[in-house]
Amino acid sequence: MSIRRTVTPTGDPAWLVSDYRTVKKLLPDPRLVRTHPDPTVAPRYSESVVFGPPAPETPTSGADHKRMRKLLGPWFGARQLEEFRPRVEELVTAVLDDLAVRDRPTDFHEVVSFPLPALVICELLGVPPADRERFRGWSEDTADMVDPGRSIAGYAALAEYIGELLVQRLEHPTDDLLSSLAAAHQEDPEGFPLAAAAQLGGGVLFAGHETTVTAIDTGILQFSLHPEQQQALRIDPSLVPAAVEEILRSSMPLPGNTARDDEAFGLPRWANAEIELPDATIAAGDLVVLQLLEANDDPVVVGAQRGFLSTRQPNPHVAFGHGPYFCIGAPLARLELQVLFSQLYRRFPHLEVAVPPEALRARPNQFTGGIEALPVTW
User: Is residue 289 helix, strand or coil?
Assistant: First the structure.
C-alpha cells in the first residue's frame, strides 16, 4: 500500500493514496465525502471553486446527491445514448470535415478536441452551440487552481448563463436535459430551487466537455508515439473499444505529470470519520487525495506491460472513479471517443503530432490538466 503525508497545491496538509487496491477501496467508502462540517477551516485542495474547498455538509447532502443521480441518470443511460449515437457520428464527421480543409500543420486541439465534446454536450443539454466559446472561457476560469477570484467569477457566470436558459425552458420546454431540470424544479421548487438546477446544469456543461477534451488529446499523442498501434486500429475497427479504455486509463483530468514531489495531485475527498488503514490512521476532517493516474499505472492493472497498449484487456482502470460517485457521464465520454477513433484514422491514416512531445505546453494551473495546443499533420 502507498499512502503518505503530503501537501496540496495550496500548501494544506493531506494524505496521498496512489496504489490501485487502496484507491479502489476508498473511492466508494462512505467515510470519504466531498463535504465538511466547516469548510472554512478544512484543508483545501486548490483555489478552484470546484474541487478546491469541500462543500458544506448539510442535512440534505445525501438526498441531494441521490436527486442528482436520479435526474441525470436517464440522459446517460444505454438506451438514450444509443439513440443519440447517430447525432454524435454526424458531429464527428463535421469536425473531421473541418480538419480536412485546414492547412498543415494545424491545431487538433482547437479544431477537433475542444469543439467535438462541446458540441455533443450542447446537444444533450440544449445549449446553443454558438455559445461554446463563451462557456469555454467560463470553464477555464472555473478550473483555475491558483486564482480564487477568477474561479469564483467563472463559476458564477456559468451558473447564471444556465439559469437564464432554464427560465426559457420553464416557458418553452423542449426535449433536452435542461428542460428535464426545469420540470424537476417546477415539481418541487422548494426542494430543488432554480439556483440548484442552474448549478447542476452548469456542472454538467463544465464536466461534459473539459475532461473529454483531455482524453482526445491524450489519444492523439499516444497513437502518434505508437504508429504501429495506430495502424492496427485503422485496419481493425474492432480494436476501438479496448483502445478507448487504454486512452482513458492513461488520461486523467488532473495535471499529474506536472506535480512536484512534495505536492498532491488527484481526486480530493474529506474524511467524515476516522479511517484505520494498515499503514496510517486518517482522522476525521483530514483531506485525502486519491491519485487515480498512478493507481491506473499500478502493476495490478498493467502487469509487466507498462506504457500505452491499445489492445490491453482486461483494463480495470478507475479513470471514472468507483462506487456511488462513479462518473455519471462516463458512457457519453466513451461514446464520443469510440465514434471519433472509429473514423479518424480511416480518414487520416498518416495523422501524427507535428512537434516533439516536450514542445507541447501543459496547463499546470488547470485542475482539468491537458495541453494548450496540439499541432498535427497528415
Answer: strand
